[in-house]
Amino acid sequence: MYYRTTNLKNMRIFTETYPDFQKVQHPVAFLPWRNNLTLMAKARDETERRWYIEQTLENGWNNTVLTHQIEMKLYQRQALTEKTDALSDPSINRKGGLRPHYYFRV
């Protein structure tokens, strides 16, 4: 069997990116190779990469859509939106706990 040099390099990068392949085997196995290459090249952080894997499987993104979402920094915007929503929720105090509800009788 013949492998090109770039494919061998990509396989090496894949094993370096996912050193504990048993943990990520299930979700990564459902992605096309091209999507894995895109994730390895553009999503450097492990949590970011896992988030994009989940979103790709959930939404059925092809490689073009995945690349676009990474370049538009969807992960960072989503995290910022969630943080903003948590801060604007009146039932959550700034220390992360729930605020007590007080009821006053008149």
Order of helices and strands: HHHHHH
Gyration radius over CA:
20 Å
* Number of individual domains: 1
Number of helices: 6
Q: Which structural category fits the helices and strands?
A: mainly alpha
Per DSSP E runs of 2 or more residues, the count of β-strands stands at: 0
Q: Please mark out the parts with pLDDT under 50 across 5 or more consecutive residues, or reply none.
A: none
Strand content: under 5%
The overall pLDDT average reads 79
What shape does the CA trace take? elongated
End-to-end CA span = 84 Å
Helix content: 55-70%
Largest beta-sheet details:
none
Would you write up a description of this structure?
The protein is mainly alpha-helical and 106 residues long. The chain has one domain. It is 66% helix and 0% strand. The chain has six helices and no strands. It has helices spanning 5-17, 21-29, 33-42, 46-59, 63-71, 74-88. Helix 3 runs parallel beside helix 5. The chain is elongated. It starts with a helix and ends in an 18-residue tail after the last helix.
Short description:
The longest helix has 15 residues.
Blueprint (SSEs and pairs):
Elements: H1 5-17, H2 21-29, H3 33-42, H4 46-59, H5 63-71, H6 74-88
Keywords:
elongated, mainly alpha
